[in-house]
Each structure stands twice: as C-alpha cells, then as structure tokens.
Amino acid sequence: MPNLFTNVAPLGYALDFHLERHNLLASNLANVDTPRYKPLDLARVGNDGFEQAMQVALARTDQGHISVGGSDPLVGRVFQDPSAGGGADGNFVSLDRESGKLAANRLRYDMVSVLVKAQLDSLMKAANDGKGG
C-alpha cells in the first residue's frame, strides 16, 4: 500500500525550515542593540530538496560528479550573516534588512501552509468517498 502522505512530507520539511528561520530572524531583531552581535540565518541542507519539489531525479553523467541522493533532509544549517555591515558598536543587524527577510519568510511559510491544507483536504475528500470534509 503506498504512503498517502508522500506529497505532504516535503511540505512538512518546508514548514519546519521556515519556522526555524523565523525564530532566528526574530532573534536577530531582538538583538538589534546588542554590541558585537552578528545576525544568524538558516540555509537549506540536504540533497533531496530539488528532486522532491520537482518530482524528478538528477542523473550522474560522470564518476567525478557529486553523488545524487542521500540521507533524509535536515531542517537547515545555521550561519552568521554579517553582510549588512557593522555599526560603531560592532552590531551587524540591519533593522530594515532583517524585517524584510522576516516578512519574506512569513510569506513563504504561509504559501507552504496553504499547499499543505490543500493536500490534506484532498486526502480527506478521498477518505470520505469524494464527499466534502
């Protein structure tokens, strides 16, 4: 019997990623006045992201190429993002930049949650023999 939640699982990873990133970005904003603070951000990790999102597989055409496939995708890798430049007190947090990143991340989270709801609604409809939820 096929797993009914195969399409929902990658979306769950995306929700986890954006939630974790939201927490980091909010923490950056909370430390806007902390001397020598460097903001943190979250980068995606894992080899399965593209294949799962696009439902395609990459082919390895040469043995020297990086292997496709791998372990379960992780939520993300935390890294320092001092690219906004430091102030006189050594704080690298830009209020405008972090607020923009936070807003964009929230929009992505909202989009993924709409997709999850649609997937779960269709599963519910199938479970109820095509009748509404």
In short:
The protein has helices spanning 9-30, 49-54, 95-127, and strands spanning 40-43, 77-80. The chain is mainly alpha-helical. The protein has one domain.
What are the key terms here?
133 residues; 3 helices; mainly alpha; 46% helix; 6% strand; single chain
Fraction of helical residues: 40-55%
What is the arithmetic mean of pLDDT? 82
* Cα gyration radius (Å): 19 Å
Q: By helix and strand content, what is the structural category?
A: mainly alpha
Biggest sheet features: 2 strands, antiparallel
The unreliable regions are 68-73
- Strand proportion: 5-15%
Strand order of the largest sheet: 1-2
How far is the N terminus from the C terminus? 23 Å
What coarse outline follows from CA principal-axis ratios? elongated
Helix and strand run? HEHEH
User: How many individual helices?
Assistant: 3
Number of domains: 1
> Count of DSSP E strands?
2
Describe the 3D structure.
Helix content is 46%, strand content 6%. By secondary structure, it is mainly α. It has one domain (9-125). The protein has a two-stranded antiparallel sheet. Mean pLDDT is 82; it is low at 68-73.
